[in-house]
């Protein structure tokens, strides 16, 4: 996971006081920058000093706390308005608006520009590509939250917005808002210019709401389909023209085309020179070969199919919606998915219907691709009835190439995740086990009774139906569980699953709320491991854990994401608190669960209160007399510890267990993985040590050898010099120096190839003569090795030699000798005395031996 | 130990190329075809010289022989009939760092490509040219080529050809600025290897005429030449091409010839009785046109501008 994606989650939970100061930017602030929206000061949460209380009072409270822990259910609504400590006290709202809306690239996908993402991501991405020295000091960076807010304001009036004009107008507005000094203004215009140069060219901005995920889905589908279709249409066109040409040529071959009139028409430009009546008699009737009737018929059918089937192009996809369980049925599918055929079911029949219509539609497409392939074969004149008739008779979507499949419409089943799990599970299993490339979107909707219906409780405390993980048991399905919180990840998931031959199931968490709470609740569900994101791609192959991917979670290697929060402790000093965000913190965000928590202020804190994550790590003996708590704060930023009742602890434990299951599957903190890594490390080290040792030994030997050889040479030179000396004249002149050549070994001689041994020529017939080839003279002409590749082989220089006389007959040896263009094969005498016609063969062999 | 130097240190090259690094695919020539031997020897040379495949180009025209680049795992250009030379010259002109080989056939070079051939000889760019002469159009299934000897019976001359053939060696020697002219035969791999090697080492247009058998369309001719050792006369000189140890025993006839002697070379080429094998002529001093092509390579834009301005200044009033 990139740090950027990670941050986008954590941002909600960070009380990032310093960052806020940056937003307010003091030097601009004191001159003319006044903006009420940003005036809110962020205060650091504090622990108020404990009050003096009597022991009796303390004990009474403690008994109450213990009883609450065992029995749960604090019936009366709290009079305090509390929230998890992690949340910013700028009442969450602006943080969320700071990150989103969503940018959707509608054209020109490049590596650099994300396909889609939160607006903040896109702005930062663009800034980083601008080559600005100090990105953090650029005005756009400093005021990024204000820019995003302004875009959000525009979005209230109309959505979607076109990206470029919107950003340009917002950047200009920023300039007037800030009333920059001339000096700053100059660098700001510069900045805008760079920025607008680098920012994405095409795209729209859509609000971050409950339909955003469908918009991303639709955009991804088009992005896959449109280019594939354009390519396909071109191919069909080309084939059509070429096939028509074939037919035309065939037409010309008909005897009637040689009639004087026809000739006259086609050669009219030489009218005055030719006598057409005479010419007719010169041209033989039906000049070249004509096609058989069945071939013509086949070609005509193909042409027909090519023409009619292009009509299929109007449909992008087929959408089957099972909306019985949908909390709100006001999704307008037709506007969300234009160019798709949509059917809405209430009774789970979508599963059956989609299978039926898939088969039907794919039958039509199979006809098109079949026509294209036959056309291709015909154009190369390589259609062979014996092979192809049968193949094309049974041609269906399973024979499609991936490219072909990708230009077909997508088949989409959209249903509520609980509905699929509770009432349609059998049908769903059946659908997926058919391995049709049908994609299922299972929507899980979080409902907060604060704004919704009391009866429909969104969060199931004890266990979440784990639809996506259940599907792991189906082989080779692409499974993706995510939310729209990180749009780019979602879009990548759609692309990956839609481009595969396999079925895919997307389990997506959505809310019923609009904007701000939407983001907060999704984010909390992910942080609290209630709805962990994961991807299972069965096609990714072998490496351990590679198919299972947990990247789209905050701090995926930890049990719970841990956030560092700056607080002021009861001694009025700043302190950093490491607070994990657990499922219990997540649950507290839902108003329905208030009665599982009992807040206590610092007066009653003692060492028997331990954090819930700590509590879950210990066994029940260690937990004797302890109570679990989570951190909270009230509107006045006063910190509380809130006792979590037993039932909630169990629910939290359940989430943790499931999270561990996911971690193990993806190789995180997996016992076997850790053990294997240790093992491999050890092995590698042993191998390296051994190799190093060997190399050292070899080097020593080599050096010694060369020294010895050279010493021999020098001694040899010296001896021969001395031996050559004329000792009769013992008067050795002083200038007669011994000339010892310096040792120069710049090239170690290459060992010369040992030539095939040539046996002595012996009178034929008396003693056996081995067959052999004058290998260095071979022209590598392929004659002999073509005759028998086991008898004759090429050596590493690609020169032939007799590899194994037993692998062939004497006859072959003789024949090879006769065809060898350079006559270098010597067949010798036969090793098998029983071979037929030996006398004759020996005679033929004679002149080559 | 490869690469051990005199100070006993090791300096291993990053990659040691083997024959297989230069070969690609299975040659589609008929079994027994002389083209196989040329391919094999060329690959051997590349290995011996350790040429970087990414810095080596084979350019050819059209014909059986011109399929050659397909079987080399280097860059290649299997181009237009008769146009191997202009392409190769273009490559060499602007990419002097590349090793450029030209593979051409008797039809490709001496017939349709004759015009380009003459000027390529004169340009004397640093190319290694292998003319694979089977005295026939092989690819198009037996038509008389300009080098087919008198009386050749083929699809185009069913009664036997009646015009005397072009002698490629004689023609090349007749063109101004020829710098390296040699002849070898496919059935003598050792001599061929030495000849191609000498050609490659020569800096300039190395023209190597390879007498090539086509056992399909010129069967009797090939058999006769390959087996009649009396017909071959090997040119002998210390600056010539060595016969090769493995082959020297089958060399029957030799004649002394100094490869710097142009008029003697022409005389030998015009001898219709004997076929001479070896180096006819070499002139290491012949001017090379490719040196001009590369003269401004690597100039920066500023440098170019300066030169241009200096040029323009001459016309300033
Ligand atoms: C412009 C053009 N004209 C004619 C041809 C037909 N053609 C193909 S190969 C060939 C002759 C090749 O002969 P050669 O160069 O000797 O090659 P070989 O096949 O003998 O090795 C001809 C005339 C062609 N391909 N292109
Ligand atoms: S037939 Fe002769 S020349 Fe051809 S590959 Fe075999 S040995 Fe070599
Ligand atoms: S036709 Fe002749 S030249 Fe062409 S590949 Fe066959 S043997 Fe070689
Ligand atoms: Mg030829």
Short description:
The complex is a heterodimer of chains A (849) and B (317). Chain A is an alpha/beta fold and 849 residues long.
Structural features, described:
The complex is a heterodimer of chains A (849) and B (317). Among the domains of chain A are: 37 residues, no CATH class; 107 residues, no CATH class; 268 residues, 3-Layer(aba) Sandwich (Rossmann fold); 75 residues, Alpha-Beta Plaits. In chain A, helix 8 packs across helix 9. In chain A, the strands form 6 sheets. Chain A has an 8-stranded mixed beta sheet, sandwiched between helices. The two termini of chain A are 75 Å apart. The longest helix of chain A is centred in the C-terminal third of the chain and has 54 residues. Chain A is an alpha/beta fold and 849 residues long. Chain A contains 30 helices and 23 strands. Chain B starts with 18 loop residues before the first helix and ends with a helix. Chain B contains 11 helices and 9 strands. In chain B, strands 2-1-3-4-6-5-9-7-8 form a 9-stranded mixed beta sheet, sandwiched between helices. Chain B has one domain: Rossmann fold (3-Layer(aba) Sandwich). The N terminus of chain B is likely disordered. Chain B is an alpha/beta fold and 317 residues long. The structure holds thiamine diphosphate, iron/sulfur cluster (2 copies) and magnesium ion. The site of one iron/sulfur cluster has 15 residues of chain A, from helix 28.
Write out key terms for the chains shown.
heterodimer, A: 849 residues, alpha/beta, Rossmann fold, 5-stranded mixed beta sheet, 30 helices, 45% helix, B: alpha/beta, 9-stranded mixed beta sheet, 11 helices, 9 strands, 32% helix, disordered N terminus, binds thiamine diphosphate, binds iron/sulfur cluster, binds magnesium ion
